[in-house]
Amino acid sequence: MERSAPDVIHNDAQQRFETTIDGHLNVADYVLSNGALVMTHTAVHPSLRGHGVAAALVEMALAFARAEGLKVDPVCSNVQGYLQRHPEHRALAA
């Protein structure tokens, strides 16, 4: 079964981008530091992996960084991999 793109929200208070699917909270955590969005951790429930959930979280984070004029420091390996697979976003890398 193919899933539609998840609705991702920016939870500013928790410094993360998140989506809840099938009752499972999935997140991409960050901290703001020296004009950069430092992407520290991405967590997707095991039953949802491989369905584009992490990509949707990262895409929202990158869109936020671009809109705010921030660079992205991809500490998280998931974000590093996303940037490698999507060269159109590499200019955001800190």
Highlighted features:
94 residues
Q: Could you give the order of the helices and strands? A: EEEEHEH
Q: How would a crystallographer describe the biggest sheet?
A: 5 strands, mixed
Mean pLDDT: 94
**β-sheet strand percentage:** 25-35%
Number of E-state strands? 5
SS field, number of helical segments: 2
**Helical amount:** 25-40%
Given as residue ranges, the uncertain stretches (5+ residues, pLDDT < 50) are none
First-residue to last-residue Cα separation: 37 Å
Derived from helix and strand composition plus strand pairing, the structural class reads alpha+beta
Q: Rough shape?
A: globular
Biggest sheet strand order reads 1-2-3-4-5
Question: How big is the Rg?
Answer: 13 Å
Q: State the assembly state of the protein chains.
A: single chain
Describe this structure in words.
The structure is a single chain. With 94 residues, the protein is of the alpha+beta class. 27% of the residues lie in helices and 33% in strands. It has two helices and five strands; from the N terminus they run E-E-E-E-H-E-H. Strands 1-2-3-4-5 form a five-stranded mixed beta sheet. Helix 1 (53-68) links the parallel strand 4 and strand 5. The longest helix is centred in the middle third of the chain and has 16 residues, at 53-68. It is globular. 34% of the residues are buried. The mean pLDDT is 94.
Write the layout of secondary structure elements.
Layout lengths: L8 E3 L4 E6 L2 E10 L2 E8 L9 H16 L2 E4 L2 H9 L9
Parallel strand pairs: 4-5
Antiparallel strand pairs: 1-2, 2-3, 3-4
